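Morning!

This is the sequence you dropped in the shared folder:
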Amino acid sequence: MRDFEQLVAEAELADVSGWGFSWLEGRATEERPPWGYAWLLSERLAKVSSALDLDTGGGEVLSEVPVLPARMVATEGWPANLQLARERLEPRGVEVVEAAPGGPLPIPDASFELVTSRHPVDPPWGEVARVLGPGGRYFAQHVGPESAFELTEFFLGPQPDHIRRRRHPELERAEAESAGLRIRDLRTARCRMEFYDVGAVVWTLRKCPWWVPGFTAERFREKLRAMDTHIREHGAFVAHSTRHLIEAERG
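The structure's back. Tokens below.
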């Protein structure tokens, strides 16, 4: 393994745009949830004539779907991802629109049969209910509570209960039902993550800045040195992601 300074410097310069994780190949692994979201998404999109994908990132997931509806729209709020999504998806006839997470969607009421999302920033339940037609479905994979908290607490220390409970599936169930949606399916999974060098940690925390708010390699230099020592002694740093699959229907 290369030395600490080389690993950190390389990770600081690496591109983190889009929503792909190929840079981590051979350097980190994450177990996948058992339900196979991409396959289930493809199955549902093939059966509707209109769909909206929220927080599509760089369009990585949607671009792999073999059959898209006649009308397919995707939203993204981060400018770098927005450009990538347009490059990937517009050649397939997908309309990609800019929409800030948590804000109103620039879409008329009752526009879609299906709304989807893989890891939305902040599920906008009221907006989902508004843009779905009667009987329309929401189908998504969400990040769950305490996801990658081993990493978060390594750098920031113990987190309070209200932070730990954020994104809890039962809280999201209640929010969805309050918006007028009926939950049809809700499944949860806890998946093992392993980081095999400190550069993989630096790159991931740049890619997912909400795990350690304010992260920079300079600010957390000593913590990163401790992380490097841990990985060299134990072979990996182990954390766990949490996910839930949720399907809801508008009445």
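Headline: The chain has a mean pLDDT of 96.

More detail when I'm at my desk.
O.
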